[in-house]
Amino acid sequence: MGIRGPKPGFVDVACPNKSCADYGKTEKGNIVGNGTYQTKNGPVHKFICRTCSKSFTSHSNTILHDLRTNEETVFLALKMILKGMSLRGTAEVLGVKLDTVRRWLRITSEHSEEINKVLMKDIKVDKVELDELWTFVKKKTVPRMEHESEDERWIWLSFAPEHRLTLAAYAGAMTQDAGS
Q: Cα separation of 18 and 160, whole Å?
């Protein structure tokens, strides 16, 4: 125990090290504080996992990790893109480089895949809409429908309208095996 009393336990923080025995587990008592440091966005807490002895920060495994731009600017850029503004237009409005906006979008999309793995399980869907699309590639004229050429493509989609979620998508040839 220190002069000011025992250090507070960080029960809501999990170890981000995938090779740790306590990876992703909270309320284990294995995480201890290791100070803070100041950034443009405020203080960032540092932690150490007692199980694997790895250190990490409160921004580890988030879109804010190693970010040098004000987080409000990044979130504003993402909102602008979600509302349909082009990447180039977003960069011009915010006064940043196009490559910077592309990097923010890439980092965010990588994290959204991880979030989807957790959140998109066992979704209750009452209504599913199915649709198909026929198109052709590398042709200047429409091929005949009697026989299928290798340049033709079929796309099937299943969509849950209440969740605005594409459940499945398939692109391929129009065969019995492809449809199942």
A: 33
